[in-house]
Amino acid sequence: TGNAALFASQLADRLTERGVFDQVTLTALNDTPVDEALAEPGPLLVVCSVYGEGVPPDNATQFAADLLARRTTAPVGGPFAVFGLGDSRYAME
Q: Is the pTM of this model over 0.85?
């Protein structure tokens, strides 16, 4: 639906407006290999929505698998976080 892309764009604007970062790069998860994303200077923030009961979108599936595989074979180069947007129609457990 574009909610995660819109939120990421607004977050990037605020982070640069407030001087937290000089530059923020936005890209779709299926357009950037994990190694390339982690090679960028500064922290990595992944903004991703889910559908149903926590199912990631298709464009996040390969990125998540590659990130998890990398974590088990080599440490991540810098700080990273994942911000997930859920669906309020489903109960939290």
A: no
